[in-house]
Amino acid sequence: MEDDLRDADGELRGIEVSARLGRRSLIAGLAVLLLWAIAAGTWRAAATAAAGWPFAWSDAWSAIGLLILGAPFHIIGAFATVAGLVVAAGLIGAFFGFLFGLPRLDPRSQALAATQGGAGAARGSDQRPPAVDDATPTEPAAAGGTRSHSATVAQQILASYRASPALNEIADWLTKIIVGVGLVQARDIGHGFTSLLHYLLMDAGLVRYPAAGAVVPAALIAGTIGGFLWAYLLMTLLLSRELAEAAMDLENAGVRRAEAQARKARKEAEKAQRDRAAADRVAEAAEFDRDAANREASREQALRMAVGVLRYRDVSELLRDATLDGGQVHADADLREAVDLLSSEELTEEMTADEVRAWANAQARRLRLGDAIDGFTRLAELRRNAYSQSDLAVVLDAAGAHEAAHAARAGAQAESIDVAPRVTAMNRILDALYRQPPQPDLALSLITALEAADPATGEDATIQMYKACALGQKHRELVAQAAEGGASQALQDEIGMVEDEAFAALQASLDAHMSRDWLQLLMDPAHPAKTGLGGPEREDDLETFAGIERFRRLVGPWPAR
Membrane-spanning residues where (predicted)? Predict the structure, then answer.
């Protein structure tokens, strides 16, 4: 850096000295020219006044006035004429100075720059680029590596895109031609210069000025030399420096551009890495959600299977087995898994009657008698019948609450007396539904008689399910009749009425806590439990409604299969 500063200071001093010498030489030449012009102009004015033109010689005052008035014009004319010759000669000399002083591109420096650029590119290609995590702005090594790489790129750019050498080549050609012609035609040049002087002195009339024969050639030679030196120094000192500074600016711009590109690439790589990390996190979250959904679906399926295992178990047998093994289920793997799963659940208001019964049986099998009492009490509220009251009495006896057990048995006996006719009617309903061929109209008439005798039958989950099944059988017959003989308006109205009544019956059954799983089995033609079944064994009374959207929404949500 210090050497560069010293070189720059030396060039500046050289330029200042040359400029100072040029100014002094110009001032001296102008001073000499001005003195000559004053002398020559005064002499010419005096000669004119002495000749007496346009006045007579005898008029002395006129001659003096002519001298005084004509001297400035002759001085200005002499000065302007010779100054114009100097400027013209200076322009010619400046042209030659431009040709000889135009900065040349050094082939050796170009080759060296190209070699260094190629070597830097080779080193850059051999080196592994730094990782994105390592190329942080706070690390000096990474920043230095970026600048080095950027400088290499800038050198490659400069080596690839150099200044056009056409002007240098033309200047070289003209210089060689001029030098060659000058050497060969030296005599002709002398004769030409003599002819030029003759023209200027004689034809142009400069001979009328005293010493014009010496001043004019001297002015031409001085102007040519001065213009040559001025242009030569301008090209050599100033233009060379400007070209060097322009090249440095170009290199710095290339370096800055390469550094900007490197920073941009680093930021893009960091952003890509962050995007990949975010995508990975999203994928992990989605995978976690899928796993959670699968676990929840598996758990729901396991709960349904556990309810199926325990809902029809006799609580007396479960308590007896629990007393023998202390609540630890050792045999029957299905029963053990069902008890383990349901006994870990909480009793909720959303549970159906079947789910509550299975949950209470699981608590009884674990000898958790308090939870079992809560479960059977809830079941007695959902299904007010002799069976629920009897099961509650059994658990109360096991817990030592004999008075409460006696009250539950009394309630069971009262329910048995009240429901005996209903049980008989329900048996007749089942016979009408399952005989071959089914008799849905008989089943519907029996259900209508039950509802008229006991309004509470309208809130019984089982009876309302039987009513929906009878209406499903009737709906299937009407649809088949419409397909065979054409759907009249009366038949369509009857089909719509049957659908409305079946929908209301299913809604009442669900409101009374009927199991959705059982209703889905009756409605879904592709239910897994129906695989291999056909004829009377196939529970298909509600399949006729499977294609109706409102029925599917009512019985849903459907499990994923």
Answer: 26-53, 73-100, 211-233
DSSP string, 88-127: HHHHHHHHHHHHHHSPPP-HHHHHHHHHHHHHHHHHHHHS
pLDDT, tens digit, 9 for 90 and up, residues 260-318: 888 999 999 999 999 999 999 999 998 888 888 888 777 788 888 888 888 777 787 78
User: Angle of helix 353-365 relative to helix 386-398, nearest 10 degrees?
Assistant: 20
Alpha helices in 234-346 (DSSP H): 240-310, 315-325, 333-343
List the alpha helices (DSSP H) in 161-234. 166-184, 186-198, 212-233
The burial class, CB within 10 Å (0-12 / 13-18 / 19+), for 125 is: exposed
Other C-beta atoms lying within 10 Å of the C-beta of residue 79: 19
Closest CA to 314 of 254, 365, 244, 278: 365
CB 383 within 8 A of CB 415: no
User: Does the reported pTM lie above 0.85?
Assistant: no
Percent share of the chain, pLDDT over 90: 8
| Residues whose CB is less than 8 angstroms from the CB of residue 464 and which lie 6 or more positions away in sequence, other chains included | 458, 505, 506, 508, 509, 512, 514
| Choice between 55 and 466, residue whose per-residue pLDDT is larger | 466
Residue-level pLDDT at 496 = 92
Residue 334's nearest CA partner among 304, 309, 363 is 309
Query: CA-CA distance, 253 to 278, in Å (whole number)?
Result: 37
pLDDT at 27: 82
Give the tokens for residue 153: 């790129």
* Structure-token match 């010759």, residue found: 85
DSSP 8-state secondary structure symbol assigned to residue 436 = S
pLDDT attached to residue 497: 93
Q: How far is 224 from 89, CA to CA, in rounded Å?
A: 5
Contacts of 379 (CB under 8 A, 6+ apart): 353, 356, 357, 360, 388, 391, 392
Q: To 5 degrees, how large is the angle CA 512–CA 514–CA 519?
A: 140
Tell me how far CA of residue 522 lies from CA of 80, 337, 438, 457, in angstroms: 125, 27, 16, 21
